[in-house]
Amino acid sequence: MIKTSICELLGIEYPLLQGGMAHISDARLAAAVSEGGGLGIISAASGNIEQIEKEIDKIRTLTEKPFGVNVMLMGANVDEVARLLADKKVPVITTGAGDPSKYVPMWKEAGIKVIPVIPSAALSKLVSRGGVDAVIAEGGESGGHVGEMTTMALVPQVCDTVDIPVIAAGGIADGRGFAAALMLGAEGVQIGTRFLSAFECTISRTYKDKVLAAKDTSTIVTGRRLGHPVRSLKSPFSRAYAKAEYTDISNEDLEQMGVGSLRKAVQDGDEKGGCFLAGQISGLVKEEQSAADIIKDIMKGAEEALKGGLQWVK
Ligand code: TUI
C-alpha cells in the first residue's frame, strides 16, 4: 500500500489525481476515478456556468467521495467560474494555464483545498506564498497546454523550492512512472492521457482509437507562435497548423484555425479537423479498462517498481 500526505490532505485512498481535461473530464469520468480511490476532477474549461454547475451536482449524485474541479485560467468567464466553485464548496480546485493567486483567499475561505498546476519552480514559489495546499508540477510531456520543462527536471527543482507537497504530472501512465515520480520527491501524481482509454471516458471512438494506436513519437506541439503551446496527436489538423505557424498568416487567422478543433475531436471524432490533445506517454496506453482497473494497475505496478528498486542497493 502506498500512502503519502496527499491521501490525508484530500481524503483519498491513493495519491493519484485524474487530470482535468478540457471538454473531456466530466462528472461520469471523475466519479469513476473517485470511486476507484483516486481524485476525479471535472474540467470547468468550457466556462459555461450552467453546465459546470450541472456537472458538480451530478457528481454529487454519483459518489460521496471527494472530487475536484479544474479551472483553466486562460479560459472564458474565469471570475464567474471561480465564484461558482466557492459557492458550491467543491472539495478541491486545481488550476491551469496561469497564476490563480487572486482567487486563493476566496477559495480558502470556502474551505476548499487549492492545488495549482505550475510549469516552473519560479511559479511554484509564487503560488506557495499565496497559501495553496499543494502544487502539481507538470512537465511538457503532458497533453494540452504545456510548459518548457520536462517532468524529470521540473519535479525535483520544485520539491526543493516549496515546503508543501508536490504532485508530478506529464509523461506518467503506469506504475513505473508513478514510482519514478516518488523518487523525484513528489508525493502523488496526476494522470490525464491514460484515462482517455477508460470505459467511463466519453470521447469519440476516433479519439480513443488514435490514443490506443499512438507510439512514442505520435505527438506534436503547436501554438508556440501565439504563446500557448499545446501538445496533441499528429493529425491532418495539427500538421496543417504547424505548417501555418511558419507562414505569413496573421495571428488572428491562426487563432481562428484552432477554434472548435477540440470539440471536433472529442464530440465529432473528426479525424481531419479535430485537435486530439494527448501526452507523449500515449504510446504506453494499449487497452481500454475501467477507471478503477486503471488505478489498480498503476498502484500495483508502482509497488512492484518501488520494491524492485532495492535490488540495486548493495
Ligand atoms: O492547463 C493545462 N492544460 C490544458 S488547458 C487546455 S484548454 C486549451 N485549449 C486550447 C488551447 C489552449 C488551451 C488544454 N490543456 N495544463 C496545466 C498547465 N498550466 N500547463 C502549463 C500551465 C501553466 C502555464 C503558465 C501554468 C501557469 C502559467 O503561468 C504563467 C503566468 O505567468 O501566468
Tell me about this structure.
- This protein has 2 domains: 5-202 and 284-309, Aldolase class I (TIM Barrel, Alpha-Beta Barrel), CATH 3.20.20.70; 219-277, no CATH class.
- The longest helix is centred in the C-terminal third of the chain and has 18 residues, at 291-308.
- The protein has helices at 5-10, 27-35, 49-62, 78-87, 104-109, 121-129, 151-159, 175-183, 205-213, 236-244, 251-258, 261-268, 291-308; strands spanning 16-18, 40-43, 67-72, 92-96, 113-118, 135-138, 144-145, 166-169, 188-191, 219-222, 230-233.
- 51% of the residues are buried.
- The strands form 2 sheets. An 8-stranded parallel beta sheet has the order 1-9-8-6-5-4-3-2. The protein has a 3-stranded antiparallel beta sheet with strand order 7-11-10, covered by helices on one side.
- The chain is of the alpha/beta class.
- The radius of gyration is 18 Å and the shape is globular.
- The protein is 39% helix and 15% strand.
- The structure holds ligand TUI.
- Ligand TUI binds at residues 22, 45, 72, 96-99, 117-119, 123, 138, 144-147, 228, 230, 262, 277.
Largest sheet: 8 strands, parallel
What is the N-to-C succession of helices and strands?
HEHEHEHEHEHEEHEHEHEEHHHH
**Any idea what the shape is?**
globular
- The number of distinct β-strands equals 11
In angstroms, what separates the terminal alpha carbons? Answer: 25 Å
